[in-house]
Amino acid sequence: MGTVIYILAFALLLFGIYALVAKKNIVRIILGICILGYAVNLLLVLVGYRRDGVAPILAQGQSSVELAKQAVDPLPQAMVLTSIVIGLSTTALAVALAIRLYEKYGTFDMNDIRNLRG
Amino acid sequence: MKGMTPIVRNITAIVSCFVMLYGVYVVCTGHLAPGGGFAGGVIIMGGLVMLVLAFGGGGKAKELIGEHRCHVFDGLGALVFALIAIFGFFAGGFFVNFLPKGQVHKLFSGGTILPANIAIGLKVSAGLIGIFLALVLGCREALFRSCSAPKPPVEDFRE
Amino acid sequence: MKELVPLLVGIPLGAAFLITILAHVRGISRLTGLIATLAVAANVAVSIALWVAAYNDPGQSVSVWAGNWDGLGVPIGIEMVCDGLARLMVITINIIAFVVIIFAASYMLRFTKVWLFYSLFLLMTGALNGVVLAGDLFNMFVFIEVATIASYGLVGFGCEAEELEAAFKYLVLGTIGSCFILLGVTILYSLTGHLNMAMVASLLPKVGSQGPAVLLAAAALLGGLSLKAAMVPFHAWLPDAHPSAPAPISAMLSGVLIKACGVYCLARLMFNVFGTSGEYAMILIVLGAASMVIGVFLAVGQWDFKRLLAYHSISQMGYVVLAIGVAGEVISRAEPDQAIAALCLFGGLFHMFNHAAFKSLLFLSSGSIEQQTGTRRLKEMGGLARRMPVTSFCCRIGALSIAGVPPFNGFFSKLIIIVALVLAGHPFLAALAVLVALMTLLSFIKVQRYALEGEPVGKAVAAREAPALMGLAMLLLAVVCIVAGLAMVPLREYLFGPAGEVLLKGSGALKAKLSTGVSWQEPLMWFVGAAP
């Protein structure tokens, strides 16, 4: 059970890269960017897992030493928050660029958006 | 962008206030329970999105949640966060927690964590509603201005 | 001096947010350009002050902990480290940003929403300062992301068809690079339990620095950072993004971004975190040599002025990475020779600084030419030497510097790299470097012949001199090019020498507070006060 989930997270990463590389429609490429970002975030959260751990929230009357012995690692969760927001802003910018590209070129197909060559 | 029927509009006007209140709650109890600036900001933005969808993109909604206001609140939230960091200098170092830290589990504990959460919530909500307005309201005209695109279908939200 | 270090990041960011608010207040909106210039000028002053403060003790490294969290016994806070290498990078970034924003004050007048440009530009500058000052891996990643996302927006600023296409391509490829960098940071965190670079450097040998996990982390980081630095298998975004951007942004991207996000992070990680080893050095050598050669061969045949300059950026970054790689290889031999490695590092870092100066100068002059003649194609210009004297004078200085003609700065740095390559026992690489220098000279003779000499064609007949601010910015960079060449010896002693020594010390360079445990539990237990 322990390693299967890491293998699945890596498989998600490969799906994201496949969508980025092999698809021609801009919207599918943007979805590939999202999937790639979420796969890396998932790996980052999985790193902090601890078997039979509790959420790192201090209950009433609990001392912090007891919590530190039982809780899952809170640092990857903080890192992932930042990373999700970064992914969100990248996606928003990509979608805005896609809308403007449609306005200029009239198509969402990457093969037709090839003004720059050489 | 057309709005919706009067029933939807009246109910949305009431419900979105509760949604935004819940968002403010999530922002303010970020140091006690899961939540904080990012998650609460997104919830507040959800409440505002409900209003825009129900009342339509023009007129009153545009006046209240215009692009200029979004930019100003966006910058204001970020500037308050930067000021919290700089004010730490007067208390010993960069980003030092200089407000009194009360008891654990109280609302006003944790020093500068609460003002920082509020600033982040303001920035995230203003930024995201700005993105929503720019993409959704500016999108229709942009997409259908292109020469080879089909004409937009007549929208009818009444069912 | 400790208090000045966070200001390098705080002043541009604060000014960016202030501009966002003030631009919507009627009446003050014309001051946005002035606020931006003042913020970058303050940054230049702070970075020079930091350098002067380290005059008597060049090897010092100032470390600032956010929130004063440095008395805890375990480094679990956010650290900003300003050592010799960081001082060099900070001076480079801020001087180039200052000159570019003076140029942009006049160039951007024909765009709308100029406050947005200034805001994004200041975000990018603040984030670049944050990258080189970051003392832990995740902060470095976050600032790299802020800088590159700001640059995606700036590349597509003019909203023409080609700019949008270039910005989208840049965005897609840049995101892949960033995800791989985060993957590398994740694996390093899972192995050592710390994010602080000093702790990771001291804990990696205990975890087994040849194990498959560390190799995967190194591969992911190398791939992601080589994409940011535009090394050859990963260079496909640069020839589209740099020409299509507005000229001040091309100068910042080519002059500063690929160095701070790419080459600096590669050097910092490969030397100070992973420790110099033969395999990593060999990878850097191969990447550098391939970029050098392929970049210049693709550049010679270009007829678009800015695209030619963009391909030359790839080639010159190949020089820098090659020099750094050879230095790493010399250190990791059985009998390391510190003097030759120091010479290689001096050549590489000096060439990085020089390239920032002359490539920015060339991009700014190409922007000035494009504004007056309306075109970037070399065959549609001509005779500009008589019509635009200041611009063509500065363009000539930039072209002579990049081609490696004495007494400009490019000559000295390329000579040092070639001599160091020969001394390190790689005569074939030195011959390649000489060949690439000849091809660079060839392509810039072509530029001079078609753009500056000859008879004017088309709109070049009516070209007039660029506005005063643009000419002032270009003259400032030309002065930097000349002074950096002539003042090489004192600069080596006080600026580039300490930077090279930081890299030479390898894993021991960052002050590490050692901890005994390897798992992530220990920092948490220290924090709650229950450490063994």
Rg from alpha-carbon coordinates of chain B? 20 Å
- What kind of oligomer do you see? heterotrimer
Principal-axes geometry of chain B comes out as elongated
Overall mean pLDDT of chain B stands at 81
Strand residue percentage of chain C: under 5%
Describe this structure in words.
The complex is a heterotrimer of chains A (118), B (159) and C (532). With 118 residues, chain A is mainly alpha-helical. Helices cover 69% and strands 0% of the residues of chain A. Chain A contains four helices and no strands. Chain B is an all-alpha fold and 159 residues long. Chain B is 64% helix and 0% strand. Chain B is built from five helices and no strands. A two-stranded antiparallel ribbon of chain C has the order 1-2. The two termini of chain C are 35 Å apart. Chain C is mostly helical. In chain C, 64% of the residues are buried.
Q: What order do the helices and strands come in, and which of them pair?
A:
The complex is a heterotrimer of chains A (118), B (159) and C (532).
Chain A: H1 2-22, H2 26-47, H3 64-70, H4 74-105
Helix pairs in contact in A: 1-2, 2-4
Chain B: H1 6-28, H2 37-55, H3 60-64, H4 67-87, H5 113-145
Helix pairs in contact in B: 1-2, 2-5, 4-5
Chain C: H1 4-22, H2 32-53, E1 62-65, E2 79-82, H3 84-107, H4 114-133, H5 137-155, H6 161-192, H7 197-207, H8 212-229, H9 238-244, H10 247-273, H11 278-300, H12 305-331, H13 338-373, H14 384-387, H15 389-403, H16 409-423, H17 427-452, H18 468-486, H19 488-504, H20 521-527
Antiparallel strand pairs in C: 1-2
Helix pairs in contact in C: 1-2, 1-4, 2-3, 2-4, 3-4, 3-10, 3-13, 3-18, 3-19, 4-5, 4-10, 5-6, 5-10, 6-7, 6-8, 6-9, 8-10, 9-10, 9-12, 10-12, 10-13, 11-12, 11-17, 12-13, 12-17, 13-15, 13-16, 13-18, 13-19, 15-17, 15-18, 16-17, 16-18
